[in-house]
Amino acid sequence: MTLARKHDVDALVTKASTLIEALPWLAQYAGKVVVIKYGGNAMINEELKRAFAEDIVFLRRCGVRPVVVHGGGPQISSMLKRLDITSEFRGGFRVTTPEAMDVVRMVLVGQVGRELVGLINQHGPFAVGMSGEDGGLFTAKRRGTIVDGEDVDLGLVGDVAKVNPAAVLDLIEAGRIPVVATVAPDKDGAVHNVNADTAAAALAVALKAERLVMLTDVEGLYADWPDQDSIITQITVSELHEMLPSLESGMRPKMEACLRAVQGKVPRATVIDGRVQHSLLLEVFTNDGLGTMVISDPGKQVGKVISDPGKQVGKVISDPGKQVGKVTSDPGKQVGKGTSHPGKQVGKVISDESGKQKKDQK
Question: Where are the residues of the annotated region Disordered (predicted)?
């Protein structure tokens, strides 16, 4: 005979509360496409790789339709070093020579993508690997960048000029999880290295995704880098546009991608800390979430705001200048009352006991 101890029961109740917290988010995302950009330390740490694969399968089992877009920066750098091929970054982008492009293609399609597909498929026959070359998914257009006010040639680096999502949609409808490597041909057939951040944003727009979530190696966007207490939990399109010129080169492509996604009518795009195990589930299925969320400017977004499990807390309306109803999430102090005037905070901002700002919208 085995006796139940009170602390065991308490632990089980805590687990049940966590599950119930996910209930409104399960309802919101069921049947919806969520595009996840896989990158950073989550790609090289074995425990984080395993946790990420589990998160993706969990989403799929809950009725979400995940699509994974991956880069492979650390693996590409490692292989280039082994082959004694010089590599450099300018403005946050890898300068890619024809010689380096062969390595990029080999690593992304033949190594990183295959490994992730294998990890996901340990939990069921879900993942299918592909690249921007397959089914005409991406058409690239060569791009440069500006560093210190001067144009810089990046070589075989491209932006996504066109997306044909038919092949990805076919996989989604078949119940599969597309795992997309970001190499793509231009209109003349020359294969380019496409930044995974920009590719994920373009695909999210083309798929009319409900969310774009990007894994990084930082906690989020900082208002005053490197002040650890200045993480921005939520930012509007116009506010982010103002900040972009001042961002560090490594963070700028990620936030640019979030900006493009939301401007392309993806309701929300979030940068999260991929160094935290199961950060994807914490972001999607909990009230507070992680990282920095980019949303459209007040007055443009229409729909309900969910904050408290099982309760409709308030609505976002699109009538500029009118006060939007209360938006609360946890008991706390009211910091301020917003309106839908462009660039201003919508709804009340609630702080927790430590005084940190919480998200008023997920």
Answer: 311-362
